[in-house]
Amino acid sequence: MRWSDLVEGLFKDILELKTIDAHEHLLPEEEYLEQEYCGLNLFAGGYIYHDLESAGMPASFKGTMRLGGYRPVAEWWPQIAPYWENVKTTSFSNALRITVRDLYGIQEIDADTIGEIAARVQSDNRRGIYDWIFEEKCKISKVIDCIDRTLFPRDPRFVGITELMKVNIKRSDCIQTLAARSGHSISNLNDFEEAGFDLLERDIRHGSVGFKTIIDDRCEPDKDAAEKEFTWLKSDPTGMKGRFSSYPKALSDYLFDRWLNVAARANVPVAVHSGYWGDFRKLDPKFIYSFAPRRSDIHFDLFHLGMPMVREAAMIGKNLPNVSLNLTWCPIISQRQTISILNEIIDLVPLNKIIAFGGDYRVCVQKVYGHLVMMKEVLATILGDRIQSSDFGTNTALKIAQRWLYDNAIELYHLGVAR
Ligand SMILES: [Zn+2]
């Protein structure tokens, strides 16, 4: 990005600020290194492969891109190259281009450089890679990691959040699955609830700093309807399709509401995915009105600004005292959309309700760097614009950046307290 001298200076100051990485899906370093990523992960980790598929790359190849282990560049680059030219301008790809430019000193990603880039990824596979990326390159002191594939990491830099819905109620084997996971025998609705309570409370004892769920249009809990659905499901799991329009929704909504009580008792927030992901019509951030107002005892951290429904998400952050806005993933979905909405958010939303950064990566830790640079570019652009418009001065701009990158995540996830 090219800016005026004022914004360039502000960007340099923002680069020095420390950050909380409020959302990742990374394995602990030891397990990450066991994957022996070879360079192909640069295009899978961080979603570029979705854009490659959208541009025409076969889904069958996409399905192999996250796999670990050595694969020669000559095998995989020819599968990507025909689509890369059309994809390299998206924000997903921009995070990779910044990463390769700043970490490896390589300006272009093409047939001439891909071999060297892959060799650099392979030589990065050694102990200390997390220190290098998080501490040295990013000044990230804490990472809130989604514990969805592994146990809680022993790395003191990592804290975990875990799934709120301990089983997928849309699956006909959900009762058996929850029974197996919890060790409880489940013969009635009360057993089902208790098995979930038990697992969630175990998470809290292991250090979970919050729970995560996905946005849905939730009904008020109705115990009688939930009990009826549970009885049908228990007696005839395979007959589910005939009994319910699509799945036992009253049961799901009842359990959601009940299991939220663990978050309330433990005083931890609940992160709520909204917006972009598959059929995003079903992930409208406005659905938060179906449960957040009646659960004022819980703090909800609304993820991804409901992209592309960002203005609705901003208005939600303005209106509801128990909802904050978490911009994890936003700058790499669209950096420009993030710039325009975050500038509006300064007008709309109190400063204590924004968490600016979460890498949201799974198989490529290096790209946390590129993603964070993109968020810091966003901050310099919008805060610089406000300084130039005389809305406030540089000191205020830097205080806002620090709140959004660091202080607010500490406060909302209670990371300052000893665990
Ligand atoms: Zn995520």
Which key phrases capture this entry?
single chain; globular; binds zinc ion; 419 residues; 50% helix; alpha/beta
Characterize the largest beta sheet: strand count, sense, and whether it forms a barrel.
Answer: 8 strands, parallel
Under CATH, the homologous superfamily of the largest domain reads: Metal-dependent hydrolases
Integer tally of domains? 2
Rounded to the nearest angstrom, the distance between the terminal CA atoms is 41 Å
CATH architectural type of the largest domain:
Alpha-Beta Barrel
> What is the approximate shape?
globular
Strand content range: 5-15%
* Average residue pLDDT: 94
Looking at the structure, the CATH topology of the largest domain is: TIM Barrel
The number of helical runs is 19
Number of strands: 8
Our Rg estimate from Cα atoms comes to: 22 Å
